[in-house]
Design brief:
499 residues, alpha+beta, 6-stranded antiparallel beta sheet, 5-stranded antiparallel beta sheet, globular
């Protein structure tokens, strides 16, 4: 019986639910499979690609056609669960051949996975069928089925975070049916999800050592920023923000750093840095502080080195509630006013890329729906105007440069003065960040100039260029296309590749 669903993750979800897994159990298992393979059934352990001289596809083909005969004993992890031990790989190879399917076939691997659980891991399977907690289900798979070398609390939290993402997307009673792509999540909900995760660490502090799990979570992500492993005695405000991104699986939209000084450069490189005094942040935005800001903050343009960082947890009028790590040596709140003293600027992650449908935090919008002129949220467009506005009906715009930009919101097209909210694309010449006139937004063919690739565990720019473009030396093209200032990339990050 064939798999149902419009993408790999949905097919896996529907398979597991069809086998009697609870929703929490299915999500917990999927989070672990994602950590192992990125849900790629052809995934060859990255550290073996160079050693064996194979890519995912060439290794799979060679095993299938018999030109590579050491699949069982080569000790290379392979497939959804990264099967490694020789007897398990032998069993899977025999299972695939008996079914007349490729070793990299998704349905075959899911059937084999269920067979293993049913025969050799019965207590794990029973727990996954009755699980009511994603975290408990994820830990069960980690400790009793996958059994990786690193079973720390940080790794447990990270895998459970991946699982929670699948639960949030597919566990809805009315929208998780096969073929619909999972439960929808708006940009506003994506922002709230990040904030909720950050708030879950409220009260962690140095005095009782509970802050250590935040440090451990940050250090569990590889590669480490600047190659530095954060110590328990280090200042940890930036580490907290980064760890929250890691734990919720938002590494592709939120920069990872253990120090405030580099956060601005990373945000600028990603095109998500804002230091306009009139900017009113939304929940999930990240504020950088400089304690040396002048006393007349209303007229002083702060350009100092940042000292501290926090996450906007709520916005009420012009009052902001910020949650921060290492505030009085703990995770706690600060109250701040829009354009208040000490604000150095704002990191504004592109949460719209996490939204699966629906409106964002701009009121009655048409986000996710194709509009009359065929433009939609996520489209890369040519911005030909010279002004942007802080709201869709603002009368006083500020000057900006034309160029390439991406639509992040559409509000009352045909009614509002400036219906498109757009953000400048890296390297596109523009510095636009706000609401603009419909006449200034033109369809662009730039989006067809590249394809996208999701970074997997242990990927490097060179390896991606070699595997996807046929020449590792083309990694510089990937850096240029994505506006990267370094060679550092992260699992789950979406990269543009030359088409």
């Amino acid at each position: 019986m064939g798999l149902t669903g419009k993408n790999v993750e949905e097919k896996i979800w529907n398979f597991l639910i069809g086998k009697g897994f609870s929703k929490a159990g299915a999500a917990g298992l999927m989070g672990n499979l994602f950590a192992e393979s990125g849900l790629n059934p052809k995934n060859l352990q990255n550290s073996f690609e160079k050693k064996l001289g194979h890519t995912d596809d060439s290794y799979t083909a060679a095993v299938d056609n018999g030109t590579y005969s050491n699949f069982v004993k080569d000790s290379a992890g392979y497939g959804l669960a990264q099967w490694t031990y020789w007897s398990r790989k032998q069993n899977m190879l025999e299972f695939a051949r008996a079914a007349g399917k490729s070793i990299g076939d998704l349905e075959m691997q899911l059937d084999f996975l269920f067979k293993e659980l049913s025969e050799g891991y019965k207590t794990v399977l029973a727990a996954l069928k009755t699980a009511t907690s994603v975290k408990a289900a994820s830990d069960n798979v980690l400790l009793r089925f996958e059994k990786p070398a690193d079973q720390s609390d940080a790794v447990k939290a990270k895998r459970a975070g991946y699982g929670q993402t699948y639960y949030d997307k597919y566990a809805g009673d009315s929208t998780a049916a096969a073929g619909n792509g999972g439960t929808t999540m708006t940009e506003k909900e994506a922002r709230q999800k990040f904030v909720n995760y950050a708030v879950s660490y409220l009260g962690c502090k140095e005095s009782n050592g509970s802050h250590k799990k935040i440090i451990d979570l940050y250090n569990s992500h590889k590669p480490l920023a600047r190659g530095y492993k954060v110590q328990y005695t280090d200042a940890w405000c930036a580490t907290y923000v980064s760890a929250m991104a890691i734990g919720i699986g938002y590494e592709d939209v939120i920069p990872l750093e253990c120090g405030c000084s580099n956060y601005i450069d990373l945000a600028k490189a990603a095109g998500i840095w804002v230091e306009t005094d009139s900017y009113k942040p939304d929940i999930g935005d990240i504020v950088l502080y400089d304690w040396q800001d002048g006393t007349n903050y209303a007229t002083t343009d702060n350009r100092g080195n940042p000292d501290h960082i926090g996450i906007v947890a709520s916005v009420t009028g012009n009052t902001l509630r910020i949650i921060e790590g290492n505030i009085s040596n703990s995770v706690g709140y600060r109250t701040l006013q829009v354009n208040g003293r000490y604000i150095r600027g704002w990191v504004t992650p592109k949460y719209s890329s996490k939204a699966t449908s629906g409106s964002t935090s701009g009121g009655s919008s048409t986000n996710g729906a194709t509009t009359g002129n065929k433009l939609k949220v996520g489209d890369v467009v040519n911005f030909t105007g010279s002004k942007h506005y802080i709201s869709a009906n603002d009368t006083n715009g500020k000057n900006c440069k034309p160029g390439k930009a991406k639509i992040t919101q559409i509000y009352q097209l045909g009614k509002s003065k400036h219906p498109y909210h757009i953000v400048a694309e890296n390297g596109g010449g523009s510095n636009v960040y706000g609401w603009v006139d419909e006449a200034d937004v033109k369809s662009s063919t730039a989006a067809a100039a590249y394809v996208t690739y999701t970074v997997k565990k242990c990927d490097s720019l060179w390896a991606i260029a070699a595997k996807q473009l046929g020449n590792g030396n083309r990694y510089k093209e990937i850096k240029s296309l994505n506006g990267l200032s370094s060679d550092t990339i992260y699992p789950g990050q979406t990269l543009k590749l030359p088409n």
